């Protein structure tokens, strides 16, 4: 079974770039335009990892992280938080309190994101193409 990764971002260009890179590497990917839809799906089927934007409609990335961490079945899922360049927030505080695995600032390299996904899931390049 492939690792299932949820991508949560309201920017379709970002979603397309990330999902193409991860699918090419052998991951199963589901995409959501906001935190609320990702949260609902996570309750039905927990992914192996979540990549979420910080700023989104209905439910932002931090609210999604809080809900994911509060539920027993999803509290240990690795989460990468995507932020826009120049958006100020305390990375260290949220990484500690919400147990965010990684923070990436847009624009970023899809290759670097893939490497972080592999590291977060304890995979090597031999396992994932």
TrEMBL record:
Gene3D superfamilies: 3.40.50.2300. SUPFAM superfamilies: CheY-like. PANTHER family: PROTEIN PILG, STRESS RESPONSE REGULATOR PROTEIN 1. It comes from Gimesia maris. InterPro entries: Bact_response_regulator, CheY-like_superfamily, Sig_transdc_resp-reg_receiver. It holds the Pfam family Response_reg. Signal peptide: none annotated. The modification 4-aspartylphosphate is found at residue 53. It comes from the Bacteria. This is Response regulator. Residues 4-121 form the Response regulatory domain. Keywords: Phosphoprotein, Two-component regulatory system. One of its GO terms (biological process) is phosphorelay signal transduction system. The keyword Phosphoprotein applies.
